[in-house]
Design goal:
about 120 residues, about 65% helix, alpha+beta, single chain, 2 strands, 3 helices
Length: about 120
Amino acid sequence: MSEPIAWRKENAVSTSPMPSMATYTDAMNKFTKSAKGFMEHVYLLQEAQDAYKIALATSASIHDSLDASDQALRSLMTQMEQVINAHLGEATPDKKKPEAVKVEPIRTNGESTASSATFLP
């Protein structure tokens, strides 16, 4: 049996090379090597995601704590200012100008700070 003429023309005109077993084998080897290499380190992605979630949760907790502490400090400072203003208002009937106060931080054991008032003339 002879092949139809149209089939022979298509084969003759085709410019793409026929796939070879060598090309397939080379591609499979590259894929296998790359996939194995990736799988050996994919656990790092999960570790990174877990650490990221912990960092975000911890950061939010620290922010909440600092915000609450800041609010408590502001409230205490407001109370102190009210007491000082009330006290200075009663203690100076002759309208003497109050002395300036300079507040300097004092470090104890390198951990926390406390304030020390120094009166300036």
